[in-house]
């Protein structure tokens, strides 16, 4: 094929126009195998096809992903065959939209809108918009701040298992869980990038993913159902958690993760080296790294184990400390299979402390003041003061702009407020 297909120029045209639907593309975030992603802002004040709201206010920011069409020169086939290939890839791209649109979980980005952007070159470029996750990837976090501690690892495991449980319950598998695809926000982590997600046990032509995170069953040179089963996600989570704890991939198996598959398979069969971990964390990670998929359990079952392992005071724990001692806690919406309303707003204002009490050094909370706080991972977050923490009078309650759900109000010591006036 010598003539260039209009899809290539159409994509370039859309990128030059910085527009997809009503979304204005503002910053390129990266390019992958399936698409190129941009930060975007809603550029039309009228109501959209999908009502987008966050805490009752219009949400005008998102991530927009544009499909990258293949280069015809890479496929020396007749025009009709290339058109069939292109149609197949468009359908694959749309699958990611369907995956996100079918899920409603606080640890998975919200799906907003999808469409095809027409271009003068003659091909309509597929695109979709999802919730913009403000924060830092787990990969960047370890590079900047070092390994996570025990409670941080358990909380990370909880959030990822909740996301996977929702995904697997929908009959889908992520297939690319790794530190780069985990984003950290105040008080939670989010699973992103569903470009490889597929139906569970649906055999595909080949194995995609990231070297170092392939499972034993994916390294045996035989493509079969179990290479795309939910247990694959659990193994990749185990590798991710081990890496987040400070164990580099070569040390995890004491073998080169990028070396010959046969050598790595033999090392995996001998078992992961988790001796440096504390027992409570090791008991979570070790089963996930089992050589046999059936021994890894299910996301829902491992999630319950993690909840039981968390300290009673944790909001994710299956038992919380109250005035009457530890009691079983009702799981928050969206966890363990429960439905979670999108963009859930915080509870009624009456559940928050009033501006008049309690007092701190004779002053009251500067309710409504915008402040910047530093969380325990060392990340800076913008938020609005909503009161004083009644359980810790030296702390202020800050509602974050960039998170959704009932957990977007967090308690911070005054020493962690680095900009703004939390008291008046």
TrEMBL record:
Residues 23-308 form the Protein kinase domain. The keyword Metal-binding does not apply. GO terms for molecular function: kinase activity. Residues 312-321 have a biased composition (Polar residues). The keyword Kinase applies. InterPro entries: Kinase-like_dom_sf, Prot_kinase_dom, Ser/Thr_kinase_AS, Ser/Thr_Kinases-Pseudokinases. Signal peptide: none annotated. Transmembrane segments: none annotated. This is Protein kinase. It comes from Microbacterium profundi.
């Amino acid at each position: 094929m010598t003539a260039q297909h209009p899809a290539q120029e159409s994509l370039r045209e859309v990128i030059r126009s910085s527009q997809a639907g009503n979304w204005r593309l503002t910053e390129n975030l990266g390019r992958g195998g399936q698409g190129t992603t941009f930060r975007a802002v809603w550029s039309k004040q009228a109501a959209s096809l999908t009502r987008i709201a966050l805490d009752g206010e219009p949400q005008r920011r998102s991530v927009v992903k544009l499909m990258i069409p293949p280069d015809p020169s890479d496929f020396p086939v007749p025009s009709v065959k290339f058109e069939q290939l292109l149609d197949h890839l468009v359908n694959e791209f749309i699958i990611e939209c369907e995956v996100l649109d079918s899920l409603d979980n606080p640890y998975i980005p919200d799906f907003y809108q999808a469409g095809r952007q027409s271009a003068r070159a003659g091909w309509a470029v597929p695109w979709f918009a999802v919730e913009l996750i403000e924060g830092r990837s787990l990969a960047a976090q370890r590079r900047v701040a070092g390994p996570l501690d025990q409670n941080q690892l358990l909380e990370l495991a909880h959030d990822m298992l909740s996301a996977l449980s929702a995904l697997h319950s929908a009959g889908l598998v992520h297939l690319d869980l790794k530190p780069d695809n985990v984003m950290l926000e105040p008080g939670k982590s989010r699973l992103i990038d569903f470009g490889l997600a597929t139906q569970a046990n649906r055999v595909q032509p080949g194995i995609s993913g990231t070297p170092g995170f392939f499972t034993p069953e994916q390294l045996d040179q035989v493509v079969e159902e179990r290479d795309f089963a939910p247990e694959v996600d659990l193994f990749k989570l185990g590798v991710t958690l081990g890496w987040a704890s400070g164990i580099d991939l070569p040390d995890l198996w004491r073998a080169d993760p990028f070396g010959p598959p046969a050598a790595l398979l033999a090392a995996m069969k001998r078992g992961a080296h988790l001796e440096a971990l504390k027992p409570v964390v090791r008991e979570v990670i070790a089963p996930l790294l089992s050589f046999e998929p059936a021994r890894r359990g299910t996301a829902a079952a491992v999630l319950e184990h993690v909840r039981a392992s968390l300290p009673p005071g944790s909001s994710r724990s299956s038992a919380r400390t109250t005035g009457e001692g530890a009691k079983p806690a009702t799981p928050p919406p969206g966890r363990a299979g429960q439905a979670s309303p999108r963009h859930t707003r915080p509870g009624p204002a009456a559940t928050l402390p009033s501006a008049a009490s309690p007092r701190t050094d004779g002053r009251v909370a500067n309710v409504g003041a915008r402040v910047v706080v530093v969380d325990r991972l060392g990340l800076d977050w913008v938020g609005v003061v909503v009161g004083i923490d009644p359980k810790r009078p030296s702390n202020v309650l800050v509602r974050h702009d960039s998170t959704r759900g009932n957990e977007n109000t967090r308690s911070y010591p005054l020493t962690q407020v680095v900009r703004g006036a939390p008291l008046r």
